[in-house]
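User: Show me sequence and structure for the first protein, then do the same for the second.

Assistant: Starting with the first protein.
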Amino acid sequence: MPQKARERWGSRTGFLLAAIGSAIGLGNIWRFPAEAYKNGGGAFLLPYLIALLTAGLPLLILEYTVGRKYRRSPPAAFRQLAKPVQVIGWWQVAICFVIATYYSVILAWAVRYVGFSVGEQWGDNPEEFLFGDFLQAAETPGDVSGYVAGVFWPLLAVWLVVLVVLAFGVRRGIERANMLFIPLLVIFFAVLVIRALTLDGAAGGLDALFSPDWSALGEGSVWVAAYGQIFFSLSIGFGIMVTYASYLGRRADLSGSALVAGFANSSFEILAGIGVFATLGFMAQAEGVPVDEVATEGLGLAFVAFPTVISSMPTGWLFGLLFFVSLAIAGFTSLVSIVQVVVASVQDRTGMSRVPAVLSVGGLIAVVSLLLFSSDNGVWFLDASDHFINQYGIALAALVFVVVVAWWLRALPQLQEHANATSAVRLGKWWLFFLGLVTPLGLGWMMVDSLRSEFDENYGGFTDDFLLKYGWGVAIGALVVGILLSLIPWRHTDELPLSEPGRGSGPPTGGPGTSGTGTSGTGTAGTGTAGTTKNGTTRERGR
């Protein structure tokens, strides 16, 4: 069977907008501002920038390079590095499957809230409206006892639009959608920020956000938070950028593209911080309380705090439209990229054409999403699954991938040479050092810090049984599924060779480090979210 021609991006701009659209998601809007506020305010920008330069961008360049070099989705691309490494790729595919099932639900909520904004239908108690009237959340997390039509139908509509975009392909579907939606997102959010800056109390909110607490830089938790925000906001660690880069041309600029996408993502995060805290400053002044009493994140910010602000400001409905449309666009472009990883992996594995792959794979994800997350327990399933799949899925998979590539395969010098052949910004020994040492240490530190928190107390106050099923069970299940999928034999005649000429597919026999470097070596998701319980408490979550 002859090898099928792989799809290509229509232009570098199209690829960059798609990469930026994947990186800019819900976490940019509702996670970064709160992380900065809690971890030193303006001083947080220093560890954040260091994390971006020493870990985020190097890992982003690595994923671009692997994707463009092998022109395959994660499982097939990693298999070219070494056959056992495909396990990591399938693990990432399983992670994307899980994330897509619930990420789409938040997008559906945002769509509904666009309509709710017009008449400010949440009334005087946005929190009770969210959990009671809208989500009809069960009092006790557990088994499904009913479904919520107000969530089911917009969620179904979201999935239909996503599948249509994916069915049109990389150039006619994903690229065109991002060419339209990313400029719209920037315009809408810029208008929203300008409006927020004119509100009474906006200066107080910005002062609370950006006033630096330099003493915070001596706390390890602040640096962990900075590295965590970078990994979860750049869409690295779960295969998206490997997949997107696989559609690049042979002479595409890799390092330059990574710099543009990385700094565009961070710029939007700072813009989001300005808009969010200017709005919270208005809310604090209106209620006569300090900013720290209204500062929140995630669901509490988007679906409780902002509706409260909207109801108390002139022409609030217009502000609400801008905010929730921006939230929906940011979520949509990220969701498309997440599902594309699964679709592309199935295509590469089976030889299936795009439309059947989208309908079968995307349809399965949509069915699981509708069955679980349009139920009265949907918000609780989302909360636990999101936290554990981020902390022990995305971040852990990124850590394993970097360690395997840098220390087991010692493949970084070869990948560096491939990237430098067509990149405007050449990768030097600094790239090898950061990926071989700094990135693994940062990710490892995050793992230890997160596990310590898990063992101190149950996440979100959930019971052991619930967390075993929908928290730890989901994270461990993704790894098990990845291992099982990797055991299925590859039988396609159009498969790329397992290794390049002159290099074996197994691990080297020498010690770590090569080429005199000494060392060689997460949107993300994502994005982070936070949930607000019915009694008003706030819990943190990853993307």
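Switching to the second protein now.
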Amino acid sequence: MASFFETRIEFIKGVGPQKAALIGAEIGLFTYGDLIQHYPFRYEDRTKFYPIEEVHGDLPFVQVKGKIRRIETVGEMRKKRLVAHFEDGTGTLELVWFKGIQFVAKKIQLGVEYVVFGKPALFGRKISIAHPELEVLTTQNEKASFLQPVYHTSEKMKAKYLDSKAISKMVRQVMVLSEPHINETLPQSLVTQYGMIEKKLALWHIHFPGNEELLKKAQFRLKFEELFFIQLRLLKLKLTRTEKYRGAVFSDSSLLTDFYKNHLPFDLTNAQKRVIKEIYFDMKSGKQMNRLLQGDVGSGKTIVAFICMLLAVGSGAQASIMAPTEILADQHYQGLKPFADALGIGIAKLTGSSKKSERKVIHAGLLDGGISILVGTHALLEDVVQFKNLGLAIIDEQHRFGVAQRAKLWGKNERFHPHVLVMTATPIPRTLAMTLYGDLEVSIIDEMPAGRKPIKTLHEYDAKRLQVFGFMKQEIKKGRQIYVVYPLIEESSKLDLKDLDDGYESIRRAFPDQHISIVHGKMKPQDKDFEMQRFIKHETQIMVATTVIEVGVNVPNASVMVIENAERFGLAQLHQLRGRVGRGAEQSYCILMTEYKLSKEARMRLETMVRTNNGFEIADVDLQLRGPGDITGTQQSGVLDLLIADIAKDGQILQAARNAASDILEADPKLEKEENRNILRHIKSLRKAVVNWGRIS
């Protein structure tokens, strides 16, 4: 039998099939459960009446009571508006309507006491409220002090009188009916430990809060519960996997010791050593490893990956590393081949452009074990690529690959699932990593190799362009190379941006004696590669590009990155672009060029870039500015289908919820104990496809 929460909203009094279809199409509410969990996005304070003399333009919303003394129509044609002069004995303000003027004028009664609610604004010296809510004063609305919920709707819904108040009315009806159907979903011990209110009360007060304190308690309870069930799901996945999937045991470290003693050309940082220990512990534990390795651009993830490969190869297995582009795969291959050759290890590269004859040799070498390390792109996933004994699969820049592709690598060894190491140079805030990759162990390289000078970042306005060109010329004289990055390929009628073609021309005029490369996303891959290779070989001094150079390419001689219209880029993108320089021992620079007029957010992004090189700090600011939905790879994961919690703001609640879920699963992995029956009952009530276990179902 379908549960109460799956009842269609068309059965609510006054809704019916047509309105229900519109609500479903516009804001995705179909059932009672959807409606109950359509939480208000803000609340209007109806607990206070302001005297007009205390009303000013900086107040968010105000409630006043008084009388309309006169009305007039002002302006002509499109500037025509209706103005009502409203007073309460302490002062006067204007009520203004730009739409529905005739309808409003007929409705207004002079000399009658009204309650007015709206957003005050200062025009000239007068305070006015545009399109206010207007109700005749009654004993009921004079005493009714409450926080009024405001719900998301749409213009189409408002046209059919389905505004926030109509939604509120629907929610109230369903909440009254739902009382006997709402079960407690958390163990009593947890509710007591965190001083939470019960589920029924939380749902009532999130919609119709009795006061500010009850609203806060309802919000905490529902946020905690949502995050608790998401973490519980991820930790259960992790538990099932470690129990179910045995991992090959790699404990022979002799090859690794040989590499450390005789071939490693530099000292590892403490962070690199710590991460290698964590991975080594996983690989000899007998359980299949799933680990996320986070490290800023240039922090030395590739050498850590190679050292982990040596653990697999030294124990008689093979290793693979998969990168999202041919350029990146080639860079990994060129970087690792000298080490592999010195140790006598077979290494090969497989990409989409590998010739048929090369592929034959590679396929044979993988099957007979002659090739121990395979570096490549998506080509690694093809069915014909079979290994003798794949023990470790490394994936670089995880967000470019889906879960299905990870699973495909898993299937390349029938005896044991290979250990999986996922690497990313996009620092992910801790709260987001816990939610997106909560089923993976996380290792972080939070230290830069010795001898790396921090990149100096400057913010310059267009007026300083000639000085910037002068600085670029000095750097080229020293033998350095320069990137100049533009946000768009061709001119857009909507955005007045310096497009790449214009930029290329102006750079050519300013640097007539230099060779210049140009790279953008609309070029054919082979043309792009040709231009990149010219720059890498130092045949060109300046690379004019769009953001296609963002991931991975290593040109140690490039020491200056000029980013045009820097205000148009997101923080994560700016940080990734900056990481293209600073690869060598020389001092490197990143120059952010903008016009003078900037939004508050853009200014904050640029100030953050100038202030810090720390990718994790930048990621935290980015999360606060953009919210989690836009951060790389989160959309397709489905995990962040959050109803009330906010990853950017609720980090402490998330940590507490994860700890609670972890403690419960440690003591009772199958949730069989009496005290956890609420949790188990709730999970069983959910549909199989639901990812967010915090939902009513």
